[in-house]
Specification:
The protein is of the alpha/beta class. It has helices at 8-25, 33-37, 70-88, 97-102, 118-127, 180-185, 198-204; strands spanning 29-31, 46-50, 53-60, 106-112, 130-133, 142-146, 153-156, 175-177, 189-190.
Length: 205
């Protein structure tokens, strides 16, 4: 049976979640801003926090025939400044931004499946933007979460209502599962708030 093709929006969201998963594995607390805010994400797909450092991440899952250009780098840098003004600056002015950038307290990161133009790399170097090329890879996507109030063991599929708001804590016994069977064998049940069905998930994955 031929699997249905993912839309460009679905493919892009899948890539954001993949990059977020890699950040989580590196000990970051990840907010999936693009997935929750959609067109109103200001070019911030992920907000990743670890200790006193914040990575503002933009993700592009593009064909290798395309390139990232300086306008994309500029957008990321601009939204990083905006985040600093609204969330980090006491005076809500740009004073201190470049010091925070130099001290690695805030870091703009561009993650892409394709390459960057020479001009884009020049802009990135001068603006302090980190450019990464990271192909999409396989990863466990089912979130197995334990409700801290009721202690219920619940698993969430990628299209479930609370998926992108669910934060996995390995210290609390939560984990990412590869299959529904793995989640259920570990004692987790399906989330009650969901948008699709398991057959749809299995068909696409």
């Amino acid at each position: 049976m031929k699997r249905p093709k993912k839309s460009s929006w679905e493919a892009g969201q899948e890539y954001e979640r993949y990059i977020g998963y890699l950040y989580e594995n590196d000990g970051f607390h990840v907010t999936y801003f693009g997935a929750s805010e959609g067109l109103h994400d200001f070019g911030r797909d992920l907000i990743c926090k670890k200790n006193d450092s914040i990575h503002i991440v933009q993700c592009k899952r593009w064909s290798s025939k395309k390139q990232i250009h300086e306008k994309h780098i500029n957008q990321l840098f601009g939204t990083t400044v905006m985040y600093y003004l609204s969330e980090m600056s006491v005076t809500h002015t740009v004073d201190g931004f470049y010091q925070a950038l130099n001290d690695k307290k805030i870091i703009p990161v561009f993650a892409s499946t394709t390459g960057y133009s020479e001009t884009a790399l020049q802009f990135a170097k001068s603006l302090g933007v980190i450019c990464k090329i990271k192909p999409m890879g396989p990863y466990p996507v089912i979130k197995c979460n334990i409700n801290q109030s009721t202690h219920e063991h619940i698993y969430h599929l990628p299209f479930d209502q609370q998926y992108d708001h669910c934060v996995i804590s390995k210290e609390q016994g939560e984990f990412y599962a590869l299959t529904v069977q793995e989640a259920e064998d570990a004692g987790f049940r399906r989330a009650k708030r969901w948008k699709g069905n398991i057959q749809k998930y299995n068909a696409k994955n």
